[in-house]
Design goal:
With 800 residues, the protein is mainly beta. It contains five helices and 44 strands. 5% of the residues lie in helices and 37% in strands.
């Protein structure tokens, strides 16, 4: 049986020990009483009590402070209290708490007490955000996203930005009991696609789709979602899921920050692609790809940002498979976000392998006037590297086109499709092509079309007949001998043309080709199509008055490419040379007959091409006139005549093979004298006389009349400075334009109140229309007193 000890036994009941026990008990009672009335530890801002949010600041649930007795609480010197508390009287004493969230959350702050020892309106809370930890925050640092309250209760925000929040509990002077705080943390709202289970379901990816959503309230569940390349501050995530179609060549995602409500002007965003369905099988996701995108917002429209990021998958993702995307943003970022999804691809190509070309892509013998058409797709199996065939299908082909005699642009093509046809007798074959995007709109990207002599299914080293470069829709004609021919359409898996900042991607595009035999006649044989055999007009100086003419030439010759003075000249070329023995203002006109084909281009060089191409130099446009010219815009000397010497004209044109158009050239050179200005001073102004719509109308009741004033020209010499005229000259409407330097004056007498329409049609010294001319209308006769025109008193219509 256990021994029972009395209190006296425990303390030996000696008188001295009994005294010590009673004293210790009294001291404990006194200590507890003093403790209940001592100054709270968090009475000042610097000692604010930390309420720890679990899971490193990512936790969900209710997090409670210690209970604080307000009896001995005070207010620091200089401590700010909101006006709400001041007018409510709850500004006499304060204690401080602090908590921190790491990601946007739905946060409610509850002010609680055990009973009603403090009146319901005896205390309140105000929330601050401040970077200064050494002294209490000021009123300007009150966080208005959490509304202050002046009574027991709660305040909250369904999408509270991640930060450190200081909670000031303030109270009336008679608040002498315990209070505490509850911080209730939940997932933010609205926070679209925040959780894997709430991911946006795109469904089957087919064609193009658009998704708009806001970023700013999303979060993460744990630090496991961090992206190392971005760091812990990037903890807003958005989840999406999609399922690939039964066949796709290209899947592309374009992420666009359409508007920036908050965040840096440089957008930084994380991207992860998982194989698997995040909504229904999150634990089975397998990471397939990741990236970090960075781009500055448009500096001219920073609130609209306009930053875009693109992620493309070309022949990479499995068909009929679930994938999930996670987007990762900075915790403070608030964006209006747009996701564009594009999918392209119908099926595998049938005509990509020239050695195994199906019969369906063999046209056989073409019949006159009857077209034969084929349809296929640039697909993942269209890569030339996967269908190698001698010299006609190599890994890739670099093509060099030349546009308007400019520096060449090098393009690389690595996709191709094939078809064949046969020609029974010599004649013209029209080849039409039409490449369509997924949306069935024409494809304006550049492609190359090559025609070979022979059957590619049995010979991979065929001779090239013609190479044609153009956009995705067009046609060309070629003169062919009897036999079998192989036609190749080339595209590119993905490349960035030098002339375009966007990528050309041909995967998934539909390709249509039609062959048609027209039995057309060929062009007549050309005469002067070799640089070594130009037409030599000799010294034409004495012939210029009546006009010097060259013989007609034709286009029955092969295409050629020639580099002259650093530029390239292509297609069918003609060469003519002539000599002038004195400085001369020349006009050179070349046209095609029949028809004024403006795509017959010509270039003027100094030098004699019969002495070699290297002897030619392009005529300087700014000195002698436009060196590149056509029928619609012939060469005309500018204010400086061409000096004596030899000159060469190189003409280039791509001729069609039409039955009723055997093209010939008409070439003439003449001399002209620059016009002389007549009305370029106020005292020289042209006087027209009366302008009166009521005088001799062309028919009864008609009140509209047109008048044509005397013609003048803007000559070679300038009329500046206008201050000597004097006149306030019309200013150019755009700052980048040069000031006006030439003027003409006209005077007319208006007899009736009228509505006037003045149309200036100005010409330069060589007779060409002047690029931009404006007029000003004044009231008065500038011939009589031009000094009155120096200001704006008489100005009726400025700079029209």
């Amino acid at each position: 049986m256990p021994k029972t000890l009395s209190l006296a036994d425990a303390y030996c009941l000696r008188p001295k020990n009994v005294f010590r026990f009673i004293l210790l008990f009294l001291l404990c009672i006194i200590s507890v009483h003093i403790s209940a009335q001592s100054v709270p530890a968090n009475d000042n801002f610097r000692n604010a009590e930390t309420i720890v949010i679990g899971n490193g600041g990512y936790g969900l649930g209710t997090f409670t402070s210690t209970k604080i007795n307000l009896k001995k609480a005070s207010k620091e010197a200089g401590e700010s209290v909101s006006l709400l508390q001041y007018f409510a009287g709850t500004d006499k004493k304060t204690v401080w708490f602090v908590f921190e969230t790491q990601t946007p959350r739905n946060v409610t702050i509850e002010l609680r007490q055990k009973d009603t020892l403090i009146g319901q309106d005896g205390a309140g809370i105000t929330i601050f955000r401040t970077k200064n930890k050494s002294q209490p925050p000021n009123l300007g640092e009150i966080d208005n996203s959490l509304t202050p309250i002046s009574k027991f209760g709660s305040t909250g925000n369904t999408c509270l930005s991640p930060d450190k929040y200081y909670v000031q509990v303030s109270a009336k002077a008679n608040a002498n009991a315990e209070i505490w705080l509850n911080i209730v943390v939940g997932n933010s709202s609205p926070a679209l696609y925040d959780q894997p289970k709430d991911a946006y379901e795109t469904g089957y990816l087919k064609g193009s789709k658009t998704l708009n959503f806001d970023v700013g309230c999303q979060g993460i569940d744990s630090k496991n979602e961090f992206m190392a390349a971005l760091g812990p501050d990037y903890n807003q995530t958005v989840w999406l899921t999609f399922r690939t179609d039964n066949y796709s060549d290209l899947i592309a995602f374009t992420f666009n920050v359409n508007q920036k409500f908050r965040g840096s002007d440089t957008v930084l965003m994380g991207y992860r692609l998982y194989k698997g369905d995040t909504k229904n099988a999150f634990g089975k996701l397998k990471l397939k790809d990741s990236a970090v995108f960075q781009q500055a917002c448009n500096p001219n429209y920073p609130p609209h940002c306009g930053s875009s990021f693109i992620k493309r998958y070309l022949c990479e993702l499995q068909s009929d498979t679930f994938y999930s995307i996670q987007l990762i943003f900075h915790k403070q970022a608030q964006y209006g976000f747009i996701l564009y999804t594009d999918e392209r691809g119908e099926r595998l190509s049938h005509s990509a392998n020239p050695k195994k070309l199906p019969d369906a892509y063999k046209a056989g013998m073409l019949k006159p006037g009857i077209g034969v058409s084929f349809k296929d797709y640039f697909a993942c199996n269209s890569l030339m590297n996967d269908n190698l065939c001698g010299t006609v299908n190599v890994k890739s082909i670099s093509d060099t086109p030349y546009f308007s005699n400019n520096v060449p642009q090098i393009d690389t093509f690595d996709l191709s499709l094939w078809s064949t046809f046969q020609v029974a007798k010599k004649g013209a074959i029209e080849i039409s092509y039409n490449i369509l995007r997924t949306d069935n709109y024409p494809d304006y990207a550049r492609h190359v079309y090559r025609l070979f002599k022979g059957d590619v299914t049995s010979n991979c080293n065929l001779p090239l007949v013609i190479k044609h470069s153009n956009q995705g829709t067009g046609n060309f004609r070629v003169w062919l001998e009897p036999g079998i021919y192989s036609f190749q359409v080339m595209g590119t898996k993905m490349r960035q043309p030098l002339s375009n900042p966007t990528y050309q991607i041909d995967l998934g595009k539909e390709v249509n080709v039609t062959f048609r035999s027209n039995e057309e006649v060929a062009q007549r044989p050309a005469i002067h199509y070799l640089p070594s055999n130009p037409e030599d007009l000799g010294n034409i100086t004495s012939k210029l008055l009546a006009g010097a003419r060259a013989q007609a030439d034709y286009f029955g010759m092969p295409d050629d490419t020639l580099k002259i003075d650093g530029s390239y000249y292509t297609n069918r070329l003609h060469f003519r040379q002539f000599y002038i023995s004195k400085p001369t203002y020349l006009q050179i006109t070349i046209e095609l007959v029949p028809g004024h084909y403006t795509n017959y281009y010509n270039s003027l060089f100094s030098g004699r091409i019969s002495k070699g191409v290297d002897s030619l130099k392009i005529v300087t446009d700014s000195v002698y006139g436009r060196s590149q010219f056509s029928y619609s815009n012939p060469f005309r000397s500018s204010c400086t005549p061409l000096p004596p010497g030899w000159y060469t004209v190189v003409s280039n044109f791509q001729a069609d093979c039409n039955t009723d158009r055997k093209y010939a050239t008409d070439f003439s050179i003449s001399e002209f004298l620059p016009c002389k200005k007549k009305f370029n001073r106020p005292y020289k102004a042209s006087y027209f006389g009366d302008v009166d719509w009521n005088k001799s109308p062309p028919s009864p009741g008609l009140t509209t009349l047109s008048y044509t004033f005397d013609e003048d020209c803007f000559g070679c010499l300038t009329d500046t400075p206008f201050s000597k005229h004097p006149i306030d000259v019309c200013k150019r409407p755009y700052s980048y334009q040069k000031p006006f330097t030439r003027v003409a004056y006209y005077v007319f007498n208006l007899k009736q109140v009228s509505a006037l329409k003045i149309i200036p049609e100005a010409k330069d010294a060589s007779g060409r229309s002047y690029g931009s001319s404006f007029y000003q209308l004044y009231k008065g006769d500038v011939r009589k007193d031009s000094l009155k025109f120096s200001g704006s008193d008489l100005l009726l219509a400025p700079c029209i």
